[in-house]
Amino acid sequence: MSRRVLISGASISGPMTAYWLARRGFDVTVIERSDSLRLGGQNIDLTDAARDIVRMMGIEDKIKAQHTGEKGLQFVDSDGKAAASFPTDKKGSLTREIEILRGDLVEIIVNANPDSVDYRFGETIEEMTETGNQVDVRFASGKTDSFDLVIAADGMNSSTRKMIVNEPDQEKYLGCWSSYFTIPRLERDNDWWRWYTSPTGVIAFLRPDNQGTMRASVNFLSDESDPPHMSLEDKKDRLRARLDGAGWEADRIADALTDVEDIFLGPLHQIKASRWSNGRMVLAGDAAHCPTPYTGMGTTLAVIGAYVLANELAEHDDHTKAFQAYEDRFRAFAEASQKLPPGVPDLAYANSKLKVKLINSGAAIGASGPVQSLISLFTGSGKDKNDFTLPDYAEPADKAAADQRAA
Predict the structure, then answer these.
(1) Which domains does the chain have, with CATH numbers?
(2) What's the pTM value of the predicted model, to 2 decimals?
(3) What distance in Å separates the CA atoms of residue 95 and residue 315, rounded to the nearest whole number?
(4) CA–CA separation, 130 vs 286, rounded Å?
(5) In this predicted model, what pLDDT tens digit does every residue of 264-301 receive, in sequence order?
(6) Which of 5, 132, 147, 398 has the fewest CB atoms within 10 Å, i.e. the most exposed one?
């Protein structure tokens, strides 16, 4: 059985896969493009069977202790008045029981990894060649090494994916850009996720965190699906241009950009690869099946997919059978999680005050008591039910005991 594994990417999927592989006896190396763990990022949540997985890992309480304090979702008008409110316990709320900053979750997962996992920062894969029973890797640093298996877990914009599954039309552009960055918290801020729709075609978010700051997001429609490289100042200039005249907190957000040092800004794609593996190389997380933030399922898919992939590799002596079992068990759920409501994201954006009013009025209707009761008739009273049933994998000690009993 192949045992030495290289994982590209140290966000959610990579460290989670490393954890389960190391727990099942694999020798794991994780490389990351950045010089250290990227601990910034937006508010994310865990739903479905991902909650069971972190509970099995013994990190659920640590994750809950890092809750952002977000009370729920509010649609606000240009004066900051709430047009509709969806508290955490309300149908239609996008705030979950487990709500945490991306960087906090990364740190918790990495700290849960055993010391045997080797993390190498400031490194990327330059070239891979499968030769017999191994994959020869040349890194951007010029170093070379060989591994039994390689896992690409380097996100939506994975540079490794094209080396593994180089197919046309894997990236489905959604026609919009998104951004995430951190700005100072002001006295007028609160603990709600505030969603503002501007008649200028911009959607802006402000969300609380547990660090005394606010997580901002600016989103807009664009025909530009593959922009050239942008410097930090380029990103700030583009955001300021979109925020100009948008209303609500747009000027405050634009002014705060002066001191921002880390911005994610770019087009949103869903990744729809027809296959996830090639020989001894395989895709995981957003590199395989990015659903985009519009689904709210990216982190959940990363956690569940990592668990399934790692344990299937441990259950099979043949990596090709393990990769096939990984797809057989998980692909249908991943693809279902990518589905967007008709017209999304276009319907969420407005180019007139009338459409803004229609959007906020629709949200108000959805938040009303009668509609909430009607939704409950069809969805039941349970929250965040599991749609994915976790396979029952034996731990190494349990499996050895089962083999002994069978003998």
Answers:
(1) 4-67+99-171+269-340 (3.50.50.60)
(2) 0.90
(3) 36
(4) 23
(5) 999 999 999 999 999 999 999 999 999 998 888 999 99
(6) 132
